[in-house]
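Note to self: keep these together.
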Amino acid sequence: MKHLSLLKVNYGSHSNESCYCDMAKKLDRGTIQMTDSYIEISSQNCSLESSLTLFEKDAFTETWKGTFSDGTSFRIVRPNKNLTAIIGDSLTIASMLKDGFAVHFDIR
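Structure:
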């Protein structure tokens, strides 16, 4: 089973999203299961479960769109498989807004 390790938190420019950032921070040290269509993260303090839709793919990353339990959309960003082999695995839970919140984790 793989676990998340919190690296960095960025609250972004939209104060109305701070509750999502705070929730994502609580996923630190949680277990993660993710496929191309589903994510489940469970920690002692919080959990996140969502279906996922591939949103964007480029030479370095893959981005999926998910939905919080209240219906608000978010992004999951991960390095692609070739880059993961070089730099290791990571995950970012982020706002759909370019200047919104982002919470970065290592996956171990």
